Amino acid sequence: MKILFSPAETKKSGGIDTKITTDSFLFLELFENRKEILDKYRKYVSSASDEKLSKFFGIKDFKKFEKYKVDIYTQPIMKVIERYDGVAFDYLEYNLLDNDAKSYIDKNTVIFSNLFGPLLAGDFGIPEYKLKQGEKIDGFSPEIYYKESFTKELDEFLGEKEFLDLRAGFYNKFYKPTSKYTTLKFVKNGKVVSHWAKAYRGIVLRTLAVNNINTMEDFYKMNIENLNVKEIIKKGIHTEIVFDIVNF
């Protein structure tokens, strides 16, 4: 079963000194399209003023973003799933999983990078970078570009089987599903939560991988710790499962 997932603002540093190549990412035939965005990013971070870069990176202290004013093509790379370091990834605990569970995530999870677009979790070619969610690159919107350029390939990759969309709402701007899909909403004490939603997206992905869940039918049978199904809402191709968070 395929899963769509959000990235994180925070990235781990370091990696291997091997450079990005044409076969580094999902959709090899679209490498040049992706490179067009990366070229714009490289040019902008090398020429924009610190005031503009402060907004662009989402970092107020000029000294803290010096490390991002580099040529992105020369930086060490890392597996996509291991580069991100936010709340969802903390609760996923990828590095504590066994090899089968890691392989499940690597092959089935598409992470939507603000800069690199849709990537497989197991893709090996992503450097450390900084781009605040929703920021334009010198007036250019990556999310619009990726939606226009990558939707056809994503549709084909996801196929006709129902998939799980665990992304934050912003990432619909990169790709809007065209076949059956399910999203999750997390409620605690009658209120929709945001921080714990990130945590539970990571927990859900982890549980899927550990149990090797391959269909939505199996997903409905799966027990997720501290979650009770409150409501299931179906509208066209979209199903939303509302979970109550208990004892967290």
Give a verbal description of the structure.
- This protein is of the alpha/beta class and 248 residues long.
- The chain has one domain.
- Helices cover 34% and strands 20% of the residues.
- It is built from 8 helices and 10 strands.
- It has helices at residues 31-47, 50-57, 80-83, 87-92, 99-108, 142-158, 195-210, 216-221; strands at residues 3-5, 77-79, 109-113, 117-120, 124-127, 163-165, 181-188, 191-192, 227-235, 238-245.
- Strands 1, 3, 4, 6, 7, 8, 9 and 10 form an 8-stranded mixed sheet that branches. A two-stranded antiparallel sheet has the order 2-5.
- Strand 9 and strand 10 (238-245) form a beta hairpin.
- Helix 5 crosses helix 7 (195-210).
Q: What features would you highlight for this structure?
A:
20% strand; 248 residues; alpha/beta; two-stranded antiparallel sheet; single chain
